[in-house]
Amino acid sequence: MFLNFNTAKYASMWNGKKDLLGMNDLSKEEIEGVIRYSSALEPLSGKGSKLGICRGEILISAFFEPSTRTVTSFAAAMHTLGGDVQTFLESGSSIEKGETKEDTIRTLEQYGDALVIRDSDPGSVARYASLVKVPVINAGDGINEHPTQALYDMYTIWKQFGRLTNLRIAVVGGLKYYRPSNSLVMGLGKFEGNKIFGICPPGLSLSKQYSNGCYEEMQINMTHLNEVLEKIKPDVVYVTRLKKEYMPPNEDTKNYFYVVDNKTMAVLPQNCIVMHALPRVWEINTEIDSDPRAIMFKQARHSLQVRMAVLALFLGHEDELKKL
Length: 324
Description:
- By secondary structure, the protein is of the alpha/beta class.
- The protein is built from ten helices and nine strands.
- The chain has helices at about 30-40, 70-80, 100-110, 125-130, 145-160, 180-190, 225-230, 260-265, 295-315, 320, and strands at about 60-65, 85-90, 115-120, 135-140, 170, 195-200, 215-220, 235-240, 275.
- The two termini are about 15 Å apart.
């Protein structure tokens, strides 16, 4: 669908676009552009690949929260593009002497060409971006957004179905505190014909600021999850982790238990895929890993190509991408 679009009409799309802070920073056409360039980069992002697109440029990785996939895939993406990565670690830094994060970010800007930042405070990454001149990519700001996660989730869906339109997507779990689902709902809402079902326990609703016309919420007793999924007949089941780190410390999480297992897979359509941003804890049973419809780790693999595309675009290398 997107591989044949006329890239010439997007020639100036990224001019003047400095930061990627949330999905509202991207139009439908710009998302299509990321999809197209990710697809072109995929065969060039294997083991041992080394492109020269970002040769001589440095990505500064500043994570004030833990990360496995995001920090590693951004580093791998930049290295594959031919650039270098400097990783900032809060532990042992001048923050322990009392330096503010704002001054830390302004200092880190002096040493690189772009910043990828994660912080626990919603809106913090946008605040940091306002202080610096280099591009800033939001790698997750608290319970707000995680735009590159949504982009590679959408790329994974596109790879499976060949489209991002007219899909039925069930987003399952603790939506109130889960930033990847916020960005995914916003991104998929830009494409026509989609129907997104938010299936969550009472009290864990998606915040209204992330909702849109294609979103319908179903607050249920999660023991009935399989029955609801069987009725919906989704194309995609997107499972979320219960983010205990953002929940009130006295919250009784036992009331929110849900799990996707072989019984769940038995009621899903044969063409339905199960996705998860990872890490999983108990919400996806490992017994489904042998089912080809469970594509969580293929999804994680796609983060490499998508983050390569995002870095190249925000560092001003669309002309090189168009030659791929």
